[in-house]
Write a structure and sequence with these properties.
Blueprint: H1 3-16, H2 23-39, H3 46-53, H4 57-64, E1 71-72, E2 82-83, H5 86-93, H6 107-123, H7 147-153, H8 156-172, H9 181-199, H10 206-216, H11 219-225, H12 229-236
Antiparallel strand pairs: 1-2
């Protein structure tokens, strides 16, 4: 059975049930919420997804309520939403569907949005900052930190943002230019991000991610942000 035969009737039926004036709003919400779900590198719960996308949780729940045939949506709102079939993702992002079905998801644009949402989340007052877990004394070993302490200070959506914002930025095709949101984030929160990555046991990925960021940055940004390679390396390792 082709993807179109499997999924298009289900989505067409859902769209047809909407009032004519509400159809475009429904489609926008579908592309925003479901589009994000299929692009995420790691599944998130309804609660975390709503916080990442800055959408009220009730709205996310309402939009997903009729999609149980294509998504695994647990009753427990803390449990991640998952695709029932990878082919659903392939169907929605298929470039050949652009302009032919209203449900088509622009993969590049969705990565761009997820990168932006991740940067905003990490930059909030309750996002990344020095000594996020209020650890004492300074220099305490990671192995001596209680996992509950970390999870209570770094929410699942914040951990997701730390792990994958660089990936989404790369997939969006965007570059880092002086004064843009990414540049400003790195100026203010670069070391806080490294601290968070250490807390969530992702330190080994940092050098690779930093190289990816350097490749996206113009010469002036590289000079102002990445001129202390040795310090960065020692901080990460």
């Amino acid at each position: 059975m082709s993807h179109e035969v499997r999924y298009l009737p289900v989505l067409d039926q859902l769209l047809s049930e909407q009032e004519e004036d509400d159809k475009e709003t429904w489609l926008d919400a579908f592309r925003e919420i479901v589009g994000s779900i299929i692009i995420l590198q790691s599944p998130l719960s309804v609660i975390s997804l709503a916080r990442l996308l800055q959408i009220p949780q009730r709205q996310v729940e309402f939009r997903l309520d009729f999609l149980h045939s294509v998504l695994s949506i647990p009753k427990n709102k803390d449990v991640p939403i998952r695709l029932l079939h990878l082919s659903f993702r392939e169907f929605l992002v298929d470039p050949r569907k652009q302009g032919k079905i209203p449900f088509w998801v622009d993969e590049r644009r969705t990565h761009e949005k997820l990168a932006s949402y991740s940067l905003e989340l990490m930059s909030k007052s309750n996002g990344l900052h020095q000594n996020m877990c209020s650890l004492s004394p300074p220099g305490i070993l990671r192995s001596d930190i209680n996992e509950r302490t970390i999870s209570s200070n770094l929410s699942p959506e914040l951990q997701y943002a730390c792990r994958y914002w660089v990936h989404h930025l790369e997939k969006s095709g965007q570059h880092i230019t002086e004064g843009d949101a990414t540049h400003l984030f790195l100026q203010k929160h670069f070391l806080h991000w490294l601290e968070a990555m250490n807390l969530i046991r992702e330190t080994n990925k940092c050098i690779y991610l930093i190289k990816g960021l350097r490749a996206l940055a113009n010469v002036r940004v590289v000079k102002t942000l990445f001129m202390y390679d040795l310090l960065t390396y020692n901080t990460v390792t």
